[in-house]
Amino acid sequence: MPTARVLVTPAAEATIDLLRDEHGPLMFHQSGGCCDGSSPMCFVAGEFRVGTNDVWLGRIHSCDFFMSASQFEYWKHTQLTVDVVKGRGASFSLEIPLGVRFLIRSRMFTEEESGDLTPVFDGEEYPNVTR
Predict the structure, then answer these.
(1) Can you tell me the distance from the alpha carbon of 77 to that of 16, in angstroms, rounded to the nearest whole number?
(2) What three-state secondary structure class fits 65?
(3) Which domains does the chain have, with CATH numbers?
(4) 55: β partners
(5) pLDDT by residue for the chain (131 residues), tens digit each?
(6) How far apart are CA 104 and CA 74, in angstroms?
(7) 8 Å CB contact between 75 and 105
(8) Which InterPro entries does the entry mention (predicted)?
């Protein structure tokens, strides 16, 4: 089985469950900006339009996870783990009213893992491979 590029903690899963109960299906996107632009943001599925400038990294807790292609160039050698902490981010992400924010924890892939990674797809290709 290929090595996942993105994972999620149990605490983040619990927050996703709360948000899904209120908003329905969800998605994540991490852009390449500074400050909150480098934090994963949670949206109602389809609310954030993705395209060829975005990369689909996989699914976490039944949510598609995308990253801007430029950001992916910096992070492609790392496994990302979506976590949640107390505090308020300054973004449009759905978790903000809960008094928490999603964040990324990361680690470098081992040499062995790097040879067997989950494939990525651009934002226009992904529906053809995940659905």
Answers:
(1) 26
(2) strand
(3) 6-122 (2.60.300)
(4) 67, 122
(5) 899 999 999 999 999 999 999 999 999 999 766 555 568 999 999 999 999 999 999 999 999 999 999 999 999 999 999 999 998 876 789 999 999 999 999 999 999 999 999 999 998 887 665 54
(6) 14
(7) no
(8) DUF779
